[in-house]
Write a structure and sequence with these properties.
This protein is mainly α. The protein is 61% helix and 2% strand. Helix 3 (28-49) runs parallel beside helix 7.
Length: 413
């Protein structure tokens, strides 16, 4: 495939600029209609895939001690705001001395949703409704991102269904801050718009959604940063390959002229994200200095590897294939393994089809997917239930530089 388009421009430039025309000129009414249909579909899917949660919205919580912890987080936030107490310290635990909540697993986006909804409904109903809202928002965010990339609402709908119903998400409804990953595709959406159009608004929104990713769960910043970094790296490579000119000064001038409109909004995105995350980061650093502690449980380093074949093998809970594949899945793990690693055969097939059809345009996304799948294997390679500790893994190599162990369970990649 040539890097030169039919108009003589380098193809990389065409791929970046082609959406400045038709996309901006498309009827906004049609897009809002598509958005509405997508949103309704997401809500319906959220209700159907979590049954019987909706039928017991105000009376039951999903059975798990983690659910009770997250419900308590929301309750404490309300009490602290009512009484003018600090959000990050409580005497309701370890009374009368109290304890800092800096290290507490708090999904602040879920807390914010609960605080709003509990004004109009009872607490249990507000908690469940918040969960359903963010589940639907994940699907809608995926739809918006994929439609932006492909200019095809049908492709967006397919991606929406896949992303919202990701097996690892639906199997972990007791972790609301794992359910809510909507800010990752939204940050990518506005990052792509920033690169394509160079608008300051898109740059600011990119930074906002990167920061909100962390406020949903700090650990989510790790995979989000990896995907964003890979996309930016490929965008930079395309820009370099598209630059012509033998004179060094001329080359530099061409690069700056082409990049200036996009670089400055990207800088704004970084500044917004950093400034928004300074308060919680400063609190975490201060707590670590005053009472040093390990942020990584030693037990989280061992026994959390993902078997390579588990990506393709549903466990016993799969509604269609589980009865046929449970034996294989159990051979990969012992009975204590309770994390879903299955990616889905349809998403893998769709990804391979996209790579074949779109070629180089799909390479950044294929690279990001491969990186996350490799990181999801963990520090020790496992295949068909057997461990190969002497073989290097991407997780093991990167963990020396980036604290990947903070994510605790590699399968969450």
């Amino acid at each position: 495939m040539s890097w030169t388009g039919g108009d003589g421009r380098p193809r990389a430039v065409n791929d970046t600029l082609k959406h400045d025309g038709p996309l901006l000129g498309r009827s906004s009414g049609a897009k809002w209609l598509q958005n509405g249909i997508a949103l309704i579909t997401c809500v319906v899917m959220a209700v159907l895939m979590t049954q019987p949660l909706t039928a017991k919205l105000g009376t039951h919580l999903i059975t798990s001690r983690d659910t009770l912890v997250h419900y308590w987080n929301s309750w404490w936030a309300r009490e602290a705001l009512r009484e003018g107490l600090p959000l990050t310290y409580t005497t309701y635990l370890f009374y009368p001395d109290g304890v800092s909540l800096i290290y507490q697993n708090v999904g602040w986006l879920n807390v914010a949703g609960w605080l709003l909804l509990q004004l109009v409904m009872e607490g249990v109903a507000a908690y469940n409704a918040t969960l359903l809202f963010y589940l639907a928002l994940c699907g809608l965010a995926a739809f918006l991102l994929i439609r932006e990339l492909t200019d095809d609402p049908l492709a967006g709908l397919v991606g929406m269904v896949v992303y919202q119903n990701w097996p690892a998400r639906l199997s972990r409804l007791n972790f609301p801050n794992l359910v809510n990953t909507a800010c990752i595709p939204l940050s990518l959406l506005f990052l792509i718009r920033t690169l394509r159009r160079g608008r300051w608004t898109d740059g600011v929104l990119t930074g906002v959604f990167v920061a909100l990713t962390a406020y949903g769960r700090w650990q989510a910043l790790i995979p989000a940063t990896i995907v964003i970094g890979i996309y930016l790296a490929f965008a930079g490579i395309r820009q370099l390959l598209s630059t012509k000119g033998a004179d060094k000064y001329e080359v530099i001038q061409q690069r700056w002229t082409r990049s200036r409109r996009r670089v400055l909004p990207l800088v704004a995105a970084g500044l917004v994200a950093v400034l928004a995350l300074l308060p919680p980061a400063a609190a975490l650093i201060g707590q670590q200095r005053s009472t040093p502690t390990s942020l990584i449980e030693e037990e989280s380093r061992e026994g959390r590897e993902t078997d390579l074949l588990a990506y393709l093998t549903p466990d016993e809970n799969h509604p269609v294939l589980g009865r046929y594949t449970a034996g294989l899945h159990n051979r990969y793990y012992n009975e204590t393994w309770d994390h879903v690693s299955y990616v889905g055969l349809i998403p893998i097939a769709l990804g391979l089809m996209a790579l074949r059809k779109e070629g180089r345009a799909a390479v950044p996304w294929a690279t990001a997917a491969a990186a996350l799948l490799l990181l999801g294997l963990g520090p020790i390679l496992r295949f068909n239930g057997r461990a190969y500790p002497n073989l290097p893994t991407l997780y093991g190599l990167m963990d020396r530089v980036v604290p990947l162990s903070l994510i605790r369970v590699p399968a969450r990649f």
